[in-house]
Amino acid sequence: MDAFFSIFHGSILVPWILSMVMGIFVGGAPGLTATMAVALIVPLTFHMQPVAGLAMILGVSFCAIFAGDIPATFLRIPGTPASGAAVLDGFEMTRKGQGALALALDLSCSVIGGLVGIAILILVAPVLAEFALKFTNFEYFWLAVFGLSMSAIISKGSKTKGVIAMTLGLVVATVGIDITTGFPRFTFGSMELTAGIGFIPAMIGLFGLSEVFKSVLNPENFKAPTITHKIKISFASVGRILNRNKLLILRSSVIGNVIGALPGAGADIGAWVSYGMAKKLSKRGDKFGTGIEEGIIAPTSANNAALGGTWIPALVFGIPGDTITAIVLGAMMMYGLKPGPLIFQQNGFLVNQIFSVAIISQIFLLIIGWLGIRAYTSLFKFPRNVVLVAVLIFSMMGAYALRSSLFDVGIILVFGILGFVMEKNGLPLPPLILGLILGPMIEDNLRVGLVKTDGSFWPFFSRPISLTIFILLVVLFFGDFFLGIFKRFTQNNGP
Q: Does residue 314 surpass a pLDDT of 80?
């Protein structure tokens, strides 16, 4: 309790809240990621006490992850990579005049998912961290394949077109330096392409710029406001929806947290996997992508829960769970703190302060997030042509800021055209994004694993966790088929 009450001091509270406001702004601006927000915050914490600096980092990351869903819902442009899955049903709800309801659910599930993730962090951090350390290249390969398999589930319409889009994403992911040979692939002599194609500019182009192109070709709506309906939400109705989907919220939060605890996985993979599992297990799976509540609840519960998961290996073993916690570990060392198993004994009071900050941040997120929704709603009431120009400028600035490269701005343009052409021909965009995100993870772990085993595939199937994930994949895709055969067999051989 002493650690809990100690965080309510002006020197901690003021920068903490200001950083969360900054997180709403950065997360809501396409291209400005949560990682970038944390990187901007860290230099400001050099001369602060450790708990104040860590409060700023936690606050800005929780807010930025949520705020990325605001432009994803209103404009179909993900503010952060973790918001990619929120586009699918969020934007469709906006087109139905239910954008405010989508964001109210989004905010509520972000808070609940965050609380579940923190509860798991507090209660079972050492156990989950030890489990995460059991993952080697063999397990990460199957995890990435499992995530990629979601592309077949989340695709609307023809599964063949979904596979084509996924394959295109995997092909694009091969551009750059070969991890095992060091040889440049498909770079065509371009130095910029040796670093590969960043999925953030690609995602902004696919979802965002393609939407701008569609609007340019339909100029009759240019003068109309981007948001035409009033933002009025009944909290009682939101509560009823959350109560109906409480098991989905819990399942998605746990999935997000566990995937977040795996170093290198992150909130974006957690959100996609949660969305795919929700669609697979739902009785209304065919309605996903058309603007239904479950399609909002699953990914938004997972992405904030994943943030709690990333802190598990970071605190317990000093291994970053994602790029944000990699920056956090550097900041902790700057404060003279050494993450690892002994941190709970040597700095127990600070650890309890961190846990307290994480919990209270969710309460602040509920308030600051709602104010952020209202602020962005006011901006999006400007005529659509004004909003789209502003979004286009922020997208270009965000892409340039990632690597200070005009080449990334060109990537947005190329993928904007590609996204427009794909949608015109009925090819879904999410499988391409999944292929682009997970392609390097699949290839790197497959090839490194084969190098370890002198070309043998046996360890990919013989290790317990690898075998478990493989069996889950088989059940996911062929479970209905085998169940149908079993039912027919029992009917034919019954009394």
A: no
